[in-house]
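Batch job 17 of 40 flagged for manual review because the log was empty.
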Amino acid sequence: MSRIITNRGVSRRAVLRGLGVSLGLPVLDAMSPGLAFGSGGSKGAAKPSGPTRLCWVYVPNGKDMPNWTPKTDGAKFEITKLLEPLAAFRDQMLVLTGLTCDKARANGDGPGDHARAMAAFLTGCQARKTGGANIRAGLSADQLGAQKLGHLTSFRSLELGLEGGPKSGVCDSGYACAYQHNFSWRSETTPMPKETDPKAVFERLFGSSSKNEAVNAKMRRDARRKSILDYVLEDAKSLRNDLGGADVNKLDEYLASVRDVEQRINRPQQESSFKPTMPVHKAEPKEFAPQAKLMADVLVLAFRADLTRIATFAFGDDGSTRSYPHIGVGDGHHDISHHGRDKTKIEKIHKINFHHVTQFAYFISKLKEAKDGDSNLLDRSLILYGSGLGDGDRHNHDDLPILLLGGGNGTVKGGRHIRYPKETPLTNLHLAMLDRFGAKATRLGDSTGLLEGLS
């Protein structure tokens, strides 16, 4: 077993190992120095505290802004129709109005708002208008954090998504597809492709560090139809003998969560009989909600085991043509986002927006439920939700729909609607998140300083 049990406690890097499996552990009381084993910890010993996690969730094509933005500022803001799924998390939510992604605007480059919105959202940089290989955007906020603190975890960062797309060619008005299908950038010329298959992410997180070993082990497990947990039972049993009752319960609950996610991932998905009216990418999942929930659950497991502390999660690529027949919207999202004030189209956009917020609320609820030392993952996290477009019909990049959820380890005071002066850079928020994460930086793209008023 790759763990260290001494009078100093269980190593925070402890893992359970088996055939091609490396299963990280959640934060346990026994991970605090000086805890006595078998009794749940020595009296008066400090509870373990967890690190801060950061996640940026992107949604495409803007929002139905009249039903998004509260009319009241401050702590007495009203829960608007589109924020209703998040009402239970009001006290840990900031609604941020007035933030702008200026580099998503044309700034002399003509059409291409969707490509620019995606490329500039985390970078604050103007994407070079090219359909060739000479792409250029900028270092994104998540990768800046990964550069500074990514070495502390097994994975510097995770780049996740729910919609695939071409990695080369021209996609939006002369812009390379790389801009429209990535919003994480390791450097100004290197986008970070997102993984859209929850099963692949799960295997990557909990498989062996050796790729060949992991592949061979997976084939053997699949042939025997066994769970990854079947191969770490011996390690888990040995660890239980050294834990107090509270930690045993935490461990069992965590292992049950891993098994539940694994079983759902391996469950065959039913084919939909619906034939979309708009073209969709071949990599697009068959149904949005199950895929979104699975990906959220896998990400929560990664945060719980401290496999990574930084993630990006794209619900869709800007300009997405995905349809949502299961909620009664058979039209492509992008097409109806150009609603021209048509009441029927606006109603459909509202349904899509509400559906996205509902899936996001599921992610937030799982973070809230996940214990992390003496707190929970939501208290330990900062989760940004937003889009690089305001109103999809106007294609505006100011007054963006932006939410910030989580306590950031006590560094953020939620329960408010904050209205910032017009043209306040969105990148100022990214810098403020990084600052609370412990990755201080003085500049990101078009930033002018740390966003104030979050504490």
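Reviewer: the log was empty due to a logging misconfiguration, but the result itself is present. Residues 1-7, 34-45, 270-285 have pLDDT under 50 and may be disordered. Unflagging and moving on to job 18.
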